[in-house]
Write a sequence for this structure.
């Protein structure tokens, strides 16, 4: 039975900003789905507030709404577009929750919109813990297998305390209902922990519900990915086994596909239970994932949970098997059955089968604890990782070691030199799951731990433990061998050792090992991910390397462009870079090149086998890239390698690749150096006559003090050679400077500290531009809302700039052109400026695609990354204008006056992290980037655009109620006007005594509330923190105090995060918020698709 | 939990070299696995990722050298519950990365030990994917595995491989079938008696019937119609088994006698080919066969797709698009493999008889097709009514 004919248009809901637990994988699945639905002839309407996604590219859907994903805004879109159906299963928990709200509010019924891909009853059965337990019980009655962990549902703290008694005591697991990525769940070993975790869980759960469970810590953990069609055909797409046993969120675990340590009988039992569950829950069509725990002692199976939707694991399973779950889910939703859908990879067999693997896939998580030094780094059932890398090998050791080096993080690869340390200490340390526990385990093995001991302390399955021993034994052989023989080297490569690791063990340079290896003729071959273990011929060149015998790379005719991706997502390098890489691939394919993508991030669109002509799922290290270039150079001509679109990862390889004879296209490595090296860049600026803030470098406190004294406080200090503002701080006085130098471990004579003049109260400006050597195309000028000193990735910004005039733009254009020319850019450049007084300072320049490229592209309706890729390969701005890729005239610096205003807002992961005492981490913004994602608000005026950005990021701005204001002295003047506006909008103001006094003198009434330090008043007056916790505050304005007082507002801000009360930490944000509130109170806020905005803009340009 | 080796001693022991030689001259060099020695057979690949114990002990693999496409084999060791017969039947075993330490609460010993104990010659450490692709493109063919420290030269090895018997035209079922009849009692209340002709039966098959209240009388492959009716059966079953169905004249004539008497009949795998021949259809050898546990088969009577376990190198040549007239009334193809349209099941429309080419007993493999045993039960019920 083919496609349904009664559906002409579908609304697809995306997942919004990247947050921990809900990341780029939903861009991948949503993009696949939108493309498929359009190919089926349906009108696709999309809503997603995240501009960094491919799915929000105007060509992916018919009508793309970059609007907040809230029931209010989605209803406006439904009212305007009147879609026949809503597909909610591809946008993570956000989409699912929004769809349920719309259903419950009667909106879907009102507009006659059918929910497809899932029904509300199934969603509730799958997601509600109580109902799901009944499902599992029912399944057990029917097939005699499957049970839930013994558990108790609780709606209050009293329930919770009683529940522990029922379960027979601690430890217990706490799981809040309806939260994503396991937010708010954890293990409680005693009452104190229980009160904290369960209390938080009750708050986080939209239904004020948590589940207490018996502990199954240390059990084996598995996941199955299933799909079902309307004829009740069910297939298991993939089995995944967690290397880390139960207790660590699967998103934070090292995971392996397929399952490695199950017999067929045990596997088929999981399969039977899984299929019975998908039927019992009633997932009509589409995918779901089910997690199981197995007792390693007797094989008892417990069903942990299910997600009745496409999930992070399904993205991983799709990449691991070549079976595109989201794409097929979309087809099933519009009426196809599995047997009617062809397998893309074989083309001749249907999708109604179960992929079989002749390789091993390992996924490893990437964390960012260094950004949150006070956060507890213990891994629990709450997901904390910010990204992941996947690697494929022909055996576990090969895949595993590739995955660890794909993480691209210092110390992530195993090291076999130096003293391992004390065995007992290492084993004791390995008990606690953390980022890098695996390395501790390896050191324990080196220190003499036995397989039994490793299992006893970590509960990692003995088969995996033995694989670690295998790796260690080969390292020993490498160390002890009199010479590197062909056999030994081949064996080491077969088990995933990198040239760098081998070099470290043998005391050789990496390039020397490589030369020896090449001389011995040991090179990887490339195998195909084909869904069927070679049973049928694969038509899709989706490759991974292995040290095996036969390569499957076919010869080609057309010149190839190799695009290096950005690797695992991390704070500072996320989906935005994948966006640029994917665009380059599309543009170059259109221009007649064969595109070859290299990346190791399974969450992305770039690693979809559909995106480029060839895909190499490989680590982005020099060794791995050089081998790919070699393999492709044997296959046909290579036009060049693109390094400037994937962020710092490929950029960092540029020089070494060039030194190895690899043709780099676009901005040459020397130019990259000219922008990154302080001295060289200083000369570029000097020649162009552009000022930079005063600065100096020092290795001691005395040296730093001398510089600071000369340029004046506040100063911006940071260690050299760091990314994403790591360790960067604004220092307001000498005392803090001394303690900063004393605390910093990264400062040494070879790594001095950089001291810059901090431009207090300056306006920070970001510019994205294209340069072809002759002509500059100013992509866009973004004015930051927060002052300079807050990392550009964490601050909100507006495009076009809202307070800069034509003269300023002219100066920015001239400076940008001078720098692009001076550095030698061919493609994209991003420059950060600060305007202090009347002086335009250059803060830094990055000769690559920046984080803001997708935002700029969407705000100005110009595909900058596509143009950059073309310029890299020799096209000029003039040619691209003539071709229509760039506008015929004008650019992003001279947008028409009635162009829409776009606001980008950063999304912070505060709520994910707790310190070891279980308290929240501070939420103050600073020069170190900590946001995980972003949203965009677009509208005709700034206030509305800003309000939309807030609604998309954190929830709607309040339009009335109580606002609490407490600001630092330096902010008190600028607070008065916005405070008055709040009162005019009917807000009641609360303030601490100092702020209240200033307000009162300016004729603004504010109720004085008690500081936390003052405690409860004599008549029981609550402190501000208590008021926030009790839900009596609707808006918080709390700017951090300049000196030493940064902790004063800590409790206020963490309480705000816990209660999800909007909390503004700069006066600039307050001013913007007031404009937003003004817009919201002034009547109807409309919605408009990007296509409509573009049409309007194009018309205005002509 | 079985972790066979204590402490930190390296398990990277020295092993003998081994060579796999295909009859078309392609060779793969690796390491000895299991017993050291020489073996010959037909090279086939199996794509199942689980169930190596069941595969090794499946009599249908008699005289075949099985290439495992899954790289890691032996991870869960060997237990005493999962074998499908009393011995390993494969002629040789080809794996990429054998486990050094088995891990499973049911494991009794390592697979390596078991292969040595049963004298099964294998090879490890070769590019099994390259070999699989070669077999896919060139077809299943004869192969030899030679292991040990004194290997013959390549020419000698190749000549020996080319002298080994071919699978086409081989009659093998008698070699694997039981010599003596035995009874598998019904589990719970006995409802039916079935005579099961053993052509290489897997242990799970009578078990699946026993679970449904069937007392199964397993008879030797040489059983005659008289032997079958001597047990007074409600239904007759013909099992899976190795070799070329064209050489199975005896079972074909016995089955024809059963069809004459209109006794409910069920056949699996070889049994399906026997039914095909009994009805007058031909059989043919597939290029490289179906061996795995992920094959999509459509039940043409319901349109539903089941994911099934396969192990067959031959298939029935029957028309997919029409009902055929046979000496036993109208017959149709009931099941078809969606990958390649190979006939996967036959059904008589005018009397109670059907068969499938794949393995509803599913050991190893998914349980999607277990309903076929229920169908057999309803045929027997229908006959009684």
């Amino acid at each position: 039975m083919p496609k349904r004919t009664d559906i002409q248009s579908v609304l697809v809901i995306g997942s919004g900003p990247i947050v921990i637990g809900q990341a780029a994988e939903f861009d991948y699945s949503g993009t696949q789905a939108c493309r498929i639905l359009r190919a089926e002839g349906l009108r696709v309407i999309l809503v997603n507030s995240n501009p960094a996604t491919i799915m929000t590219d105007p060509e992916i859907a018919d009508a793309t709404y970059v609007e907040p994903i809230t029931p209010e805004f989605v209803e406006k879109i439904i009212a305007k577009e009147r879609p026949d159906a809503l597909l909610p299963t591809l946008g993570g928990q956000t989409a699912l929750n929004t769809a349920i709200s719309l259903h419950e509010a009667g909106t879907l019924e009102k507009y006659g919109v059918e929910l497809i891909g899932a029904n509300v009853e199934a969603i509730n059965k799958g997601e509600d813990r109580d109902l799901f337990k009944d499902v599992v019980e029912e399944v057990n009655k029917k097939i005699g297998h499957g049970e839930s962990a013994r558990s108790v549902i609780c709606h209050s703290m009293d329930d919770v305390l009683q529940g522990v008694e029922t379960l027979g005591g601690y430890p217990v697991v706490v799981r809040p209902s309806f939260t994503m990525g396991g937010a708010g769940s954890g293990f409680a070993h005693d009452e104190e922990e229980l009160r904290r975790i369960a209390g938080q869980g009750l708050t986080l759960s939209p239904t004020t519900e948590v589940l207490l469970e018996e502990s199954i810590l240390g059990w084996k953990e598995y996941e199955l990915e299933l799909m079902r069609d309307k004829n009740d055909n069910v297939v298991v797409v993939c089995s995944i086994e967690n290397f880390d046993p139960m207790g660590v969120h699967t998103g934070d675990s090292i995971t392996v596909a397929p399952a490695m340590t199950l017999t067929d009988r045990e596997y088929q039992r999981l399969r039977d239970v899984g299929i019975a569950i998908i039927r019992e829950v009633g997932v009509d069509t589409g995918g779901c994932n089910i997690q199981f725990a197995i007792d390693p002692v007797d094989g008892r199976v417990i069903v942990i949970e299910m997600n009745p939707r496409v999930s992070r694991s399904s993205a991983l399973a799709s990449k691991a098997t070549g079976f595109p779950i989201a794409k097929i889910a979309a087809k099933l939703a519009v009426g196809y059955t599995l047997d009617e859908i062809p397998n893309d990879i074989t083309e001749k067999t249907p999708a109604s089968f179960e992929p079989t693997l002749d390789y091993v896939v390992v996924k490893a998580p990437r964390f960012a604890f260094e950004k949150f030094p006070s956060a507890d780094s213990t891994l629990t059932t709450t997901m904390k990782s910010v990204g992941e890398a996947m690697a494929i090998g022909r055996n576990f050791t090969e895949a595993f070691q590739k995955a660890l080096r794909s993480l691209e993080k210092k110390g992530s690869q195993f090291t076999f030199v130096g003293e391992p340390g004390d065995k007992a200490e290492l084993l004791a340390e390995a008990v606690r799951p953390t980022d890098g526990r695996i390395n501790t385990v390896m050191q324990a093995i080196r220190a003499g731990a036995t397989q039994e001991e490793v299992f006893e302390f970590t509960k990692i399955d003995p088969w995996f433990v033995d694989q670690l021993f295998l790796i260690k034994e080969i390292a020993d052989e490498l160390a002890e061998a009199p010479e590197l023989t062909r056999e030994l080297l081949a064996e080491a490569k077969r088990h995933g050792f990198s040239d760098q690791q081998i070099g470290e063990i043998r005391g050789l340079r990496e390039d020397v090992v490589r030369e020896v290896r090449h001389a011995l003729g040991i090179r990887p071959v490339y195998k195909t991910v084909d869904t069927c273990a070679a049973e049928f011929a694969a038509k899709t060149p989706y490759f991974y390397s292995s040290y095996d015998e036969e390569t499957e790379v076919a010869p080609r005719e057309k010149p190839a462009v190799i695009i290096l991706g950005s690797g695992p997502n991390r704070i500072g390098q996320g989906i935005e870079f994948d966006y640029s890489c994917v665009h380059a691939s599309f543009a170059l394919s259109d221009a007649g090149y064969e595109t070859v993508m290299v990346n190791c991030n399974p969450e992305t669109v770039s690693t979809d086998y559909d995106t480029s002509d060839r895909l190499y799922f490989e680590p982005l290290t020099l060794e791995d890239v050089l081998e790919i270039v070699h393999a492709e150079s044997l296959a046909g001509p290579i036009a060049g390698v693109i390094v400037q679109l994937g962020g710092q990862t490929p950029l960092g390889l540029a020089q070494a690749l060039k030194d190895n004879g690899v043709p780099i296209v676009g901005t040459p490595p020397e130019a990259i150096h000219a922008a990154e090296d302080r001295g060289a860049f200083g000369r570029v600026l000097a020649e162009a006559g552009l000022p930079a803030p005063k600065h100096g470098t020092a290795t001691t406190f005395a040296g730093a003090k001398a510089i600071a004294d000369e340029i004046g406080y506040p100063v911006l200090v940071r260690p050299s050679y760091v990314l994403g503002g790591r360790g960067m701080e604004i220092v307001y006085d000498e005392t803090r400077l001394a303690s900063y130098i004393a605390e910093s471990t990264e400062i040494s004579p070879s790594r001095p500290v950089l001291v810059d003049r901090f431009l207090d109260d300056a306006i920070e400006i970001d510019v994205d531009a294209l340069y072809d050597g002759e002509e500059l195309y100013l992509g866009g000028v973004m004015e930051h809302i927060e002052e300079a000193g807050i990392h550009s990735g964490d601050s909100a910004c507006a495009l076009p700039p809202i307070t800069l005039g034509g003269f300023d733009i002219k100066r920015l254009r001239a400076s940008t052109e001078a720098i692009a020319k001076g550095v030698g850019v061919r493609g994209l450049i991003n420059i950060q400026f600060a305007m202090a007084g009347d002086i335009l300072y250059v803060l830094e320049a990055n000769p690559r695609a920046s984080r803001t490229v997708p935002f700029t592209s969407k705000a100005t309706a110009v595909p900058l990354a596509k143009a950059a890729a073309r310029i890299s390969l020799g096209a000029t701005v003039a040619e691209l204008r003539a071709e229509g890729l760039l506008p015929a005239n004008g650019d992003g610096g001279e947008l028409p006056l009635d162009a829409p205003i776009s606001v980008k807002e950063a999304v912070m992961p505060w709520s994910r992290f707790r310190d070891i005492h279980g308290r929240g981490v501070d939420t103050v913004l600073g020069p170190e980037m900590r946001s995980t994602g972003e949203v965009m608000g677009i509208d005709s005026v700034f206030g509305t655009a800003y309000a939309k950005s807030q609604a998309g990021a954190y929830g709607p701005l309040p339009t009335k109620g109580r606002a609490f204001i407490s600001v630092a002295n330096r902010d008190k003047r600028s607070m008065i006007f916005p405070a008055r506006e709040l009162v005019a909008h009917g807000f009641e103001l609360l303030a601490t005594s100092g702020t209240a006094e200033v307000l009162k003198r300016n004729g603004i009434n504010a109720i004085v509330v008690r500081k936390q330090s003052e405690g409860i008043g004599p008549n029981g007056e609550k402190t501000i923190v208590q008021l926030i916790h009790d839900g009596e505050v609707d808006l918080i304005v709390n700017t951090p105090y300049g000196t030493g007082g940064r902790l004063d507002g800590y409790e206020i801000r963490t309480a705000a995060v816990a209660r999800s009360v909007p909390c503004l930490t700069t006066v600039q944000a307050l001013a913007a918020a007031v404009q937003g509130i003004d817009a919201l109170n002034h009547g109807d806020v409309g919605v408009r698709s990007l296509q409509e905005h573009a049409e309007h803009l194009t018309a205005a340009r002509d | 939990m079985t972790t066979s080796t204590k402490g930190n001693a390296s398990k990277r022991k020295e092993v003998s070299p081994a060579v796999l030689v295909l009859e078309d001259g392609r060779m793969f060099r690796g390491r000895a696995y299991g017993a050291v020695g020489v073996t010959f057979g037909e090279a086939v690949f199996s794509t199942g990722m689980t169930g190596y114990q069941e595969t090794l002990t499946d009599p249908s693999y008699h005289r075949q050298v099985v290439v495992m496409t899954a790289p890691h084999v032996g991870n869960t060791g060997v237990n005493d519950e999962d074998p499908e017969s009393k011995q390993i039947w494969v002629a040789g075993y080809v794996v990429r990365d054998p486990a050094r330490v088995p891990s499973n609460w049911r494991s009794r010993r390592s697979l390596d030990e078991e292969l040595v104990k049963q004298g099964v010659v294998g090879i490890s450490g070769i590019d099994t994917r390259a070999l699989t692709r070669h077999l896919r493109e060139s077809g299943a063919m004869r192969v030899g595995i030679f292991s040990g420290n004194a290997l013959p030269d390549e020419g000698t090895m190749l000549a020996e491989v080319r002298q080994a018997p071919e699978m086409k035209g081989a009659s093998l079922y008698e070699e694997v079938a039981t010599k003596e009849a035995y009874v598998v009692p019904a589990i719970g209340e006995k409802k039916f008696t079935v005579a099961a002709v053993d052509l290489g039966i897997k242990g799970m098959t009578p078990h699946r019937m026993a679970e449904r209240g069937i007392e199964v009388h397993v008879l030797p492959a040489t059983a005659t119609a008289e032997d079958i009716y001597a047990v007074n059966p409600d239904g007759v079953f013909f099992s899976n088994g190795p070799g070329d169905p064209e050489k199975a004249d005896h079972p074909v004539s016995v089955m024809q006698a059963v069809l004459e008497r209109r006794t409910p009949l069920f056949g699996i795998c070889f049994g399906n080919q026997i039914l095909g021949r009994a009805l007058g259809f031909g059989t043919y050898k597939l290029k490289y066969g179906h061996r795995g546990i992920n094959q999509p088969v459509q039940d043409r009577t319901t349109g539903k797709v089941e994911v099934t376990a396969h192990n067959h190198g031959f298939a029935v040549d029957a028309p997919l698009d029409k009902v055929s007239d046979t000496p036993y009334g109208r017959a149709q193809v009931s099941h078809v493999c969606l990958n390649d349209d190979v006939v996967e099941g036959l059904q008589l429309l005018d009397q109670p008889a059907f068969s499938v080419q794949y393995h509803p007993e599913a050991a190893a493999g998914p349980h999607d097709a277990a309903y076929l045993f229920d169908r057999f039960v309803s045929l027997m019920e229908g006959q009684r009514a």
